Amino acid sequence: MTSTSVVINTLNEETNLQYALRSVRPWADEIVVVDMHSDDRTREIAEEYGARVFLHDRMGYADPAREFALTQTTGDWILILDADEVVPPLLARRLCEVAAADEADVVSIPMLNYLLGAPFVGTGWGAAQDHHERYFKKGWVEARRDIHAFLRVRDGARILRLPPDEGLALVHFNYIDTSHFLEKLDRYTSIEAQDAFSRGERSTIRRAIRRGATEWWRRYVRARGYRDGWRGFYLSAFMLMYRMAVQVKVKELADLG
Questions:
Q1: Per-residue pLDDT tens over the stretch 37-81
Q2: What is the bridge-based pairing of β-strands 52-55 and 77-82?
Q3: Cα–Cα distance between 90 and 194 in angstroms, integer?
Q4: Burial, 138: exposed, middle or buried (Cβ in 10 Å; 0-12, 13-18, 19+)?
Q5: How far is Cα 178 from Cα 98, in angstroms, rounded to an integer?
Q6: pLDDT digit string (tens) for 110-129?
Q7: Closest CA to 33 of 57, 6, 58, 60
Q8: CA 172, 176, 182 angle in degrees (round to 5)?
Q9: 32 to each of 23, 49, 68, 90, how far by Cα in Å?
């Protein structure tokens, strides 16, 4: 009999967390919540749902705390879940089947992303475009501290890629509104810029333009962001701004140094 641990990292997630917990409590053998000293009822809610709760220093982003969370699990399989994500019943059953039958070492799960109030089909956030290795047998995935590159699958792993069918995707309530996006943009671009600067990267106007334009093309044209209407247009533009903001902040760091 295999067992599954669900890992959730939190910071002030009292609004979202209960929905994530409700979607996994009926079938998970263990829920591990690593909280970065929330100021609201996040920890109390996690405990009410039977989670094992640990504390971690605030790091500006969740990946270092996730690395710690993985070391606290006891299950044979691990599911990494964000507090603003929900596991549909059909997906839960499929994951349990994979574990019981030993069909794979790692499962790549499609993401159904809701942004600015609607589910996306393009822009890089559609379920057919956005897959993540979130369910895996312990030992087959390594944790890293790199922002947006948290997990690395070990060589030789059997990877099962689930189809983007309705019910088999993690439901992710991503950016609620424009203010939410811009708040995250400022925080994550600062972290990326510091990482880039520490690696010796330096910014130029040409590089900023090229990276911004490439991001726009990738989102709106290649990933067919136009299929998402005005949301796809504006979020593609926001991601152009994201890439340029990283370059501006690298330049600011260089001038300060």
A1: 999 999 999 999 999 999 998 876 667 788 889 999 999 999 999
A2: unpaired
A3: 41
A4: middle
A5: 38
A6: 999 999 999 999 999 999 99
A7: 6
A8: 115
A9: 14, 11, 11, 22
Which residue's entry shows tokens 């533009």? 237
User: What is the DSSP track for 169-186?
Assistant: SEEEE---SHHHHHHHHH
Q: Which two tokens stand for residue 248?
A: 């501006």
- pTM for the whole structure: 0.90
For residue 140, give both structure tokens: 């087959």
The amino acid occupying position 257 is: G
Could you tell me the pLDDT band of residue 145, with boundaries at 50, 70 and 90? low
CA geometry: angle 189, 193, 198, nearest 5 deg:
155
87: number of Cβ within 10 Å? 24
Q: Which among 40, 214, 230, 27 has a CA at the least distance from the CA of 122? A: 230
Write down the pLDDT at residue 148: 59
Query: Tell me: the pLDDT tens digits for 74-101?
Result: 999 999 999 999 999 999 999 999 999 9
Burial of 125 (0-12, 13-18, 19+ CB in 10 A): buried
- CA distance to 109, 141, 146, 153, 241, per residue, from 156 (Å): 19, 11, 22, 9, 38
**126 within 8 A of 64, measured Cβ to Cβ:** no
Which run of H or E residues covers position 193?
Answer: helix 178-198
Residue with tokens 């709760």: 53
Tokens for 233? 């247009």
